[in-house]
Amino acid sequence: MREEHLHIAQKMLAQMSFAPDDKILDVGCGAGWLAGLLVDKVPRGQFVGMDVADEMVSRARKAYAERINVMFIIAGVDDIPWDDNFFNKTISVESAYYWPDLAQGLREIFRVLQSGGMVWILINLYKENVYAHPWAEKLAVPVHILSGEEWCGLLAQAGFVETRQARIVDTRPVSDGYQSKWFRDAEELRRFRAEGALLVTGRK
């Protein structure tokens, strides 16, 4: 995850501002790679990573065992085991299209955010980027493929305001010899990256 998504994640983080006492929730944290980019930005705050995969959470806990302001929990976004109005930032990178119930997940994020808190969702699999659509057949679990407008609509239904969608383009070069099960050839990957990842945001 870190290798494939670091480039676009860094571009997203560059659009954000951080305070030393921020409380950040990472939904779909995997092995905790995003914590490595953020924990030093919130030395008096807290970073909580959440994932449904216990093996990933176990790896993350081992990697950050010495950091007192970082913790990882096993949970799904449809039932976040946390108090209301606690976090002021929620981030999810390349996870949201897996959520079983998108509307419920966004309601839960809204619940645990403080007033004025922001949600930032970054995904590569969305309706406008047709080059990612074949993933739906290759992935082992069901996924949701929504447009940017539909994502913003769900955010608004959950109570968020100032909803916004944008694209983050992956500008890394692609070798002509590229081979992968995810794309037919190097040219298709170039077109996928040029289309960009979808970033949707909203404020509580």
Describe this structure in words.
- With 204 residues, the chain is an alpha/beta fold.
- Helix 4 (102-112) crosses helix 6.
- It has a seven-stranded mixed beta sheet, sandwiched between helices.
- The chain is globular, with a radius of gyration of 17 Å.
- The mean pLDDT is 95.
- It contains seven helices and seven strands; from the N terminus they run αβαβαββαβααβαβ.
- It has helices at residues 2-13, 35-38, 54-63, 102-112, 135-138, 148-158, 186-195; strands at residues 23-27, 46-51, 70-74, 87-93, 113-123, 161-168, 197-203.
Tell how many strands the DSSP assignment holds. Answer: 7
| Helicity level | 25-40%
Q: In what range is the share of β-strand residues?
A: 15-25%
How would you characterize the largest beta sheet?
7 strands, mixed
Uncertain segments of ≥5 residues (pLDDT<50)? none
Overall 3D geometry? globular
Please supply descriptive tags for the structure shown above:
7 strands; 204 residues; alpha/beta; globular; seven-stranded mixed β-sheet; 30% helix
